[in-house]
Design goal:
This protein has one helix at 25-42; strands at residues 3-10, 13-21, 52-56, 62-67. It has 74 residues and is of the alpha+beta class. The model has no long low-confidence stretch (mean pLDDT 92).
């Protein structure tokens, strides 16, 4: 099983949110979307600041990025 890392992206800064072994990239994307949804609730100050959650593989190559604030809100 591949290992995926999750980061909170604030500007040019990447804050590690941990990692986990998951079956595939699709599951990692689902986890990133879930983390972004949770952050909207517990850290509403991150909305409208351009923050995002990104997924990287074991070699730190970015695979996916999702905004904390959903596109189309406003």
């Amino acid at each position: 099983m591949p290992y995926f890392n999750f980061d909170l992206v604030i500007g040019a800064e990447f804050k590690n949110q941990g990692g986990m072994f998951l079956e595939n990239t699709e599951n990692a994307i689902d986890k990133a979307d879930s983390l972004a949804s949770e952050l909207r609730i517990v850290r509403p100050e991150l909305c409208s600041t351009g923050c995002a959650v990104r997924v990287t593989d074991g070699d730190r190559h970015e695979l996916y990025r999702t905004p904390v604030e959903p596109i189309g809100r406003g």
